[in-house]
Every structure is written in structure tokens, then in C-alpha cells.
């Protein structure tokens, strides 16, 4: 620089010099800045979406799109930090290149490799128990409001059955039923809250589901874990700018199948052939499809979910709201639900303390079909020659036929509604302490309230003289219903509350090749249920007030009417106190040991046995880590697991089951007057103790061909002892004639296999497939108690069809499975065309004796359940096809038996299959092996085709549209409406002419991420 210029520069003010200098630096910096772009993939080559790319030392960042692409402004020498859930954080230095191919390694703490266990998480590599995990994208798609249906066919050993009723939850049984009392479903833990109601969870909010199967995994929950555990983890916010997600669908449902009943022409032809005729009171020249008459032409379902989430280095948040409305295919039934969810996590004190708050509120409005099971029954009994309505618009009825009611009128003249409000609040604190210690405190409060109403208007008074019986779920027997005078109403309001406080200390330490994880804690829980009231009334002033104002009635004017204030013992209050500890040890992640113990105390048991101990131990050997496996190229993973543990059951019975209770015992005649009787109604049992289930499990996890084929196989033996049941006893010993006691045992043995494969793995096209298979053998091994007078068996399940009084279908019997069919053995027809049966002595008879001439006739429990999923991706298209099946189980087709009555065809409709039956066969309808059918089926449960739009600008990260078809077809030999008959409870496999029809759904949906 020349001297004159230097002098000139020196003469300028200082601010001018600084301005020139800063401008020079800016120009130099700008000249060095450039747009860096590229693709982020995982180690498998699949695009990695949602990866945060941060310019080190600045607040500048971006995220990768669905196809893994990204772009950001940076300069040569800058460092980009790539981080994301499921991947190890990595850094790259910007060179002269403008485009980068970034391959990120999956971390051992990814969602796929981390499993949620009781009071913590664990790497899948270091667990020695049987746990099956699902991510959100693995679950079933469709118009689903029930968590059970999300998991149908997806988890080996999880047997889930559901009807088409939107207000009935699916029956969920894991590794066979563990008890004969009413509680057989797994225990749910949602975001660490034990026993949370699954209606609190929106399917769109779920991140993962972990199904804990063996006792080594479940024993840490002790008294709740006999039926298995399902741990649900909801989504959390991620570091980065706020993200908005919107998910929506609308679906159309139609009935997928119905019973093949005779139409008018078929019925008239059958009656003419048999010299029978219709009553002019019934035959009005109609041709009514009564099943269609109670159904909607189509049911509409829709759902909207919106969430906003985000986070920083020191906290995260997510808030979501979901609204779902699902119409039932039967008129008047539907479910609407609103779920609001908020989860916040905040770090403090140099990130040593993490505070969390979860709040979820679910509001549901369920409109049920009034007298649902009776409506379904009447829709198949009604004659097709009768119209729905008379010419004057009134409902057609023929009250000369006993137990014969217009099913459309039953719906139209009644209301049945339940409003649910479920709230859960969970406050958590996690503190990192010195020496590798960590302290956790979880405090949760759950409240559920139920407001129920039923109203039957004055029209129902016509039914009181017509033997109006209920049609309950098996094994309950029917009872006579009375609807009072001038209408009747019921109103009930109950509230349940649960308060839980749990804290535990975790020590996680590694030294040399050793790793130790030790957990010790305390749990306290108090439950109250049935806090509320119920009342009924009759003789209402008008028909249009429903159940909303019971005061507008005058029940005192109806002779003999008694207000029903609900059953005795509705209110329950229980307490549980527990101490627990677990040790996980591994040596070089090769040799693994796990042990736990839980000490539980519960107020529901007898005073002599309120405490129980539930230990478990598991060991695993990661064979793949051995030196002799290092030079082989066949296996990518190989681990052998062994475990044993004991769990308990404290659910399915009243808080006061073990206590002495007195109450009303009817009336007696004394000295010319009728007096009320009062005495013992329940016997005390101070020795009532825990049901305990011990499980042995051996498993093998494996991987082939660089992890492109993975799977596991498990063999288990599960034995329940001290089963709690109400046993009949000698009244001399126990005045009540029965006592709830421990007596009997049950065993389940099975094998489970899951297999997953990346068949084709290319950037343009990929195909992954997964199959799971499960076999379970259930057996009641004992059914006895020192006081029990009933031998080793109990007959149950009495549908009480016409002419079938006293005929039972099943038996609880030592040496037989739960649900064992026990009935008459059909032996064809004799020379007179009358159905005959095998008597107890082996001879044939047409007059069999109930019970005496019964034979064992198969089991409803399937021998094999299976699920098979295939996912195809081509560029931006994806197709998922899922099939599931059940094989080897039997179904008792009660509906078919009750409709197999040719001699009554002039009064009630019959199946088309009865066309060739003789009206002289007075035994044709008897419950027998004739009506036991195969329940095997294969169902194309779900097919979803989606398209993902990319390169939509800086604001739309993802836009996806999809179409789903549910229940596209089912392959089965079963003659009923559907072979997916309830597998829960003590009467599995009974199709009792009240099956709410399943539907076929076509659904369109979209997902938007902003």
C-alpha cells in the first residue's frame, strides 16, 4: 500500500476503520460459504429421516427429509454434527466437496434394540428374558380404537379375538389362560404408570409396545404379572424446532358376512313340502331380511390427530389431541372419543435432574345397542314373511308367539348410553447421583368415571307378558327381564381412583469387562372403585325424557316395584405395598445374568396370607461373542436364554372376597306373617392366598446373512397353582354352601417362533417379510380343595335354547383344557329319521340324558396361531399386506343349533341349510357334536397402499396418503357369521347367537409433518 494511502487511512475515524474491516471479513466469509447437500442413510442403505444436522458452534441446523436428503449453508473447514434417535452421533468436516453421502451407524440404544422393562430400559443384547417389541409402524392399520386390535396377529403367543362392536374391547390372552377366574388379560403399564386404562392411549401417540412374556421379565411386577405385561411407551419430543404432525382418516364399513337364513320363497317352499302353513298373523306377504333391518347400510369412521413437539438440549415436549368417531354397523351403536395428551421433560442442575410431567385425559361417549344380544338373537329368529312396520307405520309385532319381538322396535324404543372420562397424571423425577447411582420417583393419579343410562319407553310394557329373557354372554344363563309400567329407566354414576407412588434406586456400573445394573425400590398403591350410586324407576309421565330425569316418574304407584340400587359390594377399596429388587450382570456382553424378587402385600387376601414373594432368575449366553464364532460368516447373532420365575394374580375378585358378609336372604313365614330373612351370604376365608404362576422358558435369538434374517424361538412351561374360585362346599361345614378358596392348578406349555427377513434391500425397491407362529397346550391339572364337594369337575355354559333347558356345553375338568366341550355325541339318524346319540354305555339312543350321556368333544383353543406380514417399497410407494390365521380350535355353533328346528319353521325362521331336514326329527336341534365345527381360518386382515410425496419445500417435511382395506377376505369352513369367536373367559369358543357382525372397511388417510 502506498504511503499516501496509508496516511489517508490513518486520518479516518476509528469507526470507519472498523466498518471497512468488518465488511472485508464479511466478504471473505461470504465468498467461502456454500450450500452443502447430501443423503443420510443407515448402515443398511435405507434413507434416514429426521436426522438433525447442526453446524457446530452455532444454532444453525436442518433435518433430513423422508428420502434422507438435506441441505445447509456452511464453509470449508466447518464441522457438521449428525444426530438422531436410533443412530450414533457423528461429525464430518466440510472439504471442497458440495455433496456428501453420510452413512450413520445404528446405536445399541435404538428403539429397535432398546426394550422397556419394569422400572427401566435395557438393551436387547443384554436381556435374558422373553420380550417382543413393536414400533408404531409395525402395528395394524385401520379404523381401530382398541389397543388389542392394534396387536392382533403381531406378537407370537398373543391370542386376540374381537367382534365388530365398537364398544366391546378385544379379548387378549397371552400364552394361554392362567386362571379360571375372570381376570385373564395382560397387565398394562403406560409410560411407567401401572394399571393405566388403555382407552387413554391414542394409536397415533404410540411409539413402542413391549410385550413381556416370561416370568423373568414380568416378576418385577409381582402380583399383577401372572397373565403377562404389555408396556406401552408414547412418543416424546425431539431436539430441534417445533414439529407439527397431522394424521387423519375416513373409513366406510360394510358387513362382511351374515347367516344364511331362509327368505320368504324358501320358507314357503319348505313349509309346503312338509304340509305346514304360516299363521295369517305373521304372513303379510313381505320378504324381510331382518339381519339387514337392524344394520346400517354402511358405517362411517373417521379420526383426526394433531400433535406439536420439539425440544432443546435441556428438555422436550409433545402435546397431542385426537378425536375419533366410529359408527357401529348395528343401528344406534357408535363410539366417539377425544384424547388430549401432554408430556414434558425438563433437565436442570447441569442436566443432573430430569423432571417429567405426563397428563392424559380421555373422554368417550358410547352409544350401545339396547338389549344388544336380544336384538341380535331376534334378527335371526324373525320370519321373513313379516314386515318391519304395519301399513299405518307402527311396528309389526305378533305377541302370540312367546319370546318373539321385533328387533327394530327394540332399538327404536330404547336408549343405552355410557360416558367415560379417564384421567391420568404422572409426575416423574430422575436424579443422577455420584458413583453411578440414579434415583427415580414416579407419582401417578388415575381417575375414571362412568355415567350410564338406560331407557325403555312405554312400548316395552307390551313385552312383560311375553317371557322376555336376556341373552347373556356365556357362561351366564338367561334371566327374565321386566320393564315395569309406562316405561322404565336406569341411571348409574361411578368413579374409580388409583394413587400410585413408586421410587427406586439404580446403580449402573461398568468396570473391565463387567457390567452391573442394580435396581431396588418401593411401591405403594391404593385403589377405590364403585364410588357412586345407581337407581331405577318406572311409570314415567312421558316417553321423551329418556333417563335424564328419574324424578318425573311415579314408581310407588306400581305394585311390587322395587328400586334397584345396584348389586351388593360394588364399592371396593384395596391397598398394595411392595418392595422389589433386580440385578442384571453381564461379562463382556457375552455371559448374562438377571435376577429379581418382589415382596407384595395386598388387602384382598385372608388375614393369614396377605404377603407373597415373587422371585425370578434368568441367564443368557451370547454365543456370537465367542472366539470360535469370529471367523464364521453364517450367523450375525446367536444368543441362548434360560429363565424361571414366579408371578401372582390379585385381580378378578372383590376386595372383600376373603371376609365374612351378611345380607338379605329372602323372606320366611312366621306366626302368620312374612318376615325378612337375614344371614350369612359370604363365608370368611382367612387362609385365602395368592394365585401363583411359575414359568420356565428357554429361548434362542438368531441372525443370519449379516442380519438380513433374524428371529427367535421360545419354549415355555407355565404352571398356575392355588387357583382362586368359588367352590361348592358342604353346608354343614360352610353355611353359605360355597366359599372362595385356593384349589386347583392349570398348566400351559408352548412354543413360539418369529422370523423376519430383508428379502430385497435396494434403494429403489425393497421387500421385508415377517412371520410369527405360536402353539399352546392348556390343561387344568387339578380342580380340588379340602372342602370342595363337587369332585374334580364343574359343568358350565348353558345357553338355554328352546327345548334345551339344563343342557350344558362345557366342563372344567382336571386333565382337560379350559373350555373343554362336554356334550352329546351325535350318531346320525335312525331308521325313522330321528337324530340319535351315543349313550354312556356305548349304545345308541334317541332319548339321551343330560350330563349322564355326555362325551368329551374337543377344545375351542387353537393349536396354532399365526401372523404373516409383507412390506414392499418401490420409490415413493409402499405396500403392506398382513394375513393372520388360527388353526385347530373348535367352535360350538349354538346359533346354528337354535335355528336348526324344522318343526318350528312356521313360528320362527330357520337356516337355509335346514331345507332337507325332516320335521319329524324331534332331536335335530339338540346341543351335540353335530354343531361343533372347525374354527380354523386365514384372514387377509390388512392391506395398505401408500405414497410419500417428497421435495415439497422447506415447510413440509412429509406428506403421505394411503388407502387401507381391512378384513378383505376370510378362508374358513365355519358356517357361522365369523370364526373369530371370543377366546377369553371360562367359556371360549361359544357362538351363542349374539355375535356382533364383523365388517369390511375401506379407509383413506393422510399424514402430514410440518
Walk me through what this model shows.
The protein is mainly beta and 1010 residues long. The protein contains nine helices and 52 strands. The strands form twelve sheets. The chain has a 22-stranded antiparallel barrel. It has a five-stranded mixed β-sheet with strand order 10-15-16-13-14. Mean pLDDT is 88; it is low at 1-31 and 108-112.
Low-confidence segments? 1-31, 108-112
Mean pLDDT: 88
| Alpha carbon gyration radius | 33 Å
Structural class category: mainly beta
Q: How much beta, percentage-wise?
A: over 45%
Overall number of strands: 52
Question: Secondary structure elements and their pairing?
Answer:
Elements: H1 3-10, H2 14-32, E1 33-42, E2 52-55, E3 61-63, E4 69-75, E5 79-84, E6 87-93, E7 99-104, E8 114-117, E9 120-123, E10 131-135, H3 147-151, E11 158-161, E12 171-174, E13 187-190, E14 193-194, E15 206-212, H4 215-218, E16 229-234, E17 240-255, H5 264-273, H6 290-293, E18 299-312, E19 315-327, E20 334-348, E21 353-367, H7 372-381, H8 407-412, E22 414-432, E23 437-456, E24 488-511, E25 514-538, E26 572-587, E27 591-602, E28 611-622, E29 635-649, E30 661-670, E31 673-682, E32 691-704, E33 709-721, E34 724-728, E35 738-742, E36 745-761, E37 765-782, E38 793-796, E39 810-813, E40 822-824, E41 826-829, E42 835-838, E43 844-845, E44 854-856, E45 864-874, E46 877-887, E47 890-893, H9 894-898, E48 932-934, E49 937-949, E50 958-972, E51 990-991, E52 999-1009
Parallel strand pairs: 1-7, 13-16, 47-51
Antiparallel strand pairs: 1-4, 2-3, 2-5, 5-6, 8-9, 10-15, 11-12, 13-14, 15-16, 17-18, 17-52, 18-19, 19-20, 20-21, 21-22, 22-23, 23-24, 24-25, 25-26, 26-27, 27-28, 28-29, 29-32, 30-31, 32-33, 33-36, 34-35, 36-37, 37-45, 38-39, 40-44, 41-42, 42-43, 45-46, 46-49, 47-48, 49-50, 50-52
